Amino acid sequence: MSGTNNPGLLVSFLGEISHEAAWQMQLRIAAMRRGGRVPDTLLLLEHPPTLTTGKRQNPENILASAEELDKRGITVRRTERGGDVTYHGPGQLVGYPILDLKCHGRSVTKYMDRLETVFIRLLADHYGIEAGRDDAHRGVWTGRDKITAIGCAVKQGITLHGFAFNVNTDLTPYRWIRPCGIPDRGVTSLAFLTGRTHDMDTVGIQVMESFCRVFKMTPARIGRQALERLQEKAVR
Predict the structure, then answer these.
(1) pLDDT tens digits for 32-78?
(2) pLDDT digits (tens, 9 = 90+) for 101-117
(3) What is the 8-class DSSP label of residue 181?
(4) What is the pTM of this model?
(5) Per-residue DSSP letters for 201-213?
(6) Which of 23, 34, 45, 209 has the most CB atoms around its CB within 10 Å?
(7) For residue 204, how many other CB atoms are within 10 A of its CB?
(8) DSSP per position, 30-54
(9) Domain boundaries, the chain
(10) Contact 212, 1 (CB under 8 A)
């Protein structure tokens, strides 16, 4: 994509990072984006075992007790994104796009449609998997099983939260919740559909490239330490 007139996208692969640390990072970068000190940014990462709930959270959709979750080392965090409860854990590629929405048509609905398109195209192009949308439920689906969860928030025109793509994810923890509050649907992963595990770095690059094709952007990678220094410099 080099040599185009597409706007730049700063992309950082963070590895495993706690949900709280990633959330604080999102807030700092969003403030910098709002002030024009950084371009649009995409954080790609994995979380340790975590349940997150959204604005439409129903406590009954967490089926396991707090004691059971604690025993299994799973934390629970309430977030400002839309939707209900979902699971994050190793082998799941989480993406947090921090974009100035006015540069992307302003429409939240169209923005979320594009996020879904990223994975519909990626799955078709790289794995020959036919995936699509469900008019009643956000996300990317293969049949009646969700492979990518989508949930976002917008603060002062800047997007937060984003997507969770099940690559090599252990699907067992989904038994302890009613994913996204949907009782009659399932959850799947790329590993389950293909019968093999996948290199997370390779899949991360595929996601970055698909994201940039759909949003018509040019990626520029930045390491985690460099990104953290950029944030430190901004708050001085």
Answers:
(1) 999 999 999 999 999 999 999 887 777 888 999 999 999 999 999 88
(2) 999 999 999 999 999 99
(3) G
(4) 0.93
(5) HHHHHHHHHHHHH
(6) 45
(7) 19
(8) HHHHHTTSS--EEEEEE-SSEEEE-
(9) 8-235
(10) yes
Per the rule left: phi > 0, alpha: psi between -120 and 50, beta: everything else, 40 is beta
Which two structure tokens, joined as six digits, stand for 74?
A: 């799973």
* Cα(174)–Cα(176) distance, integer angstroms: 5
Please give the CATH superfamily to which domain 8-235 belongs.
Answer: Bira Bifunctional Protein; Domain 2 (3.30.930.10)
Shortest CA distance to 29 belongs to which of 99, 94, 82, 88? 99
Please report where in the chains the tokens 């949308």 appear, as a residue. Answer: 133
User: Which of these, 64, 28, 25, lies nearest to 45 by C-alpha position?
Assistant: 25
CA proximity to 11, closest of 199, 158, 217, 163? 217
Of 103, 152, 180, 212, the active-site residue reads: 180
In angstroms, the Cα distances linking 3 to 7, 8, 219, 222 are 11, 11, 12, 19
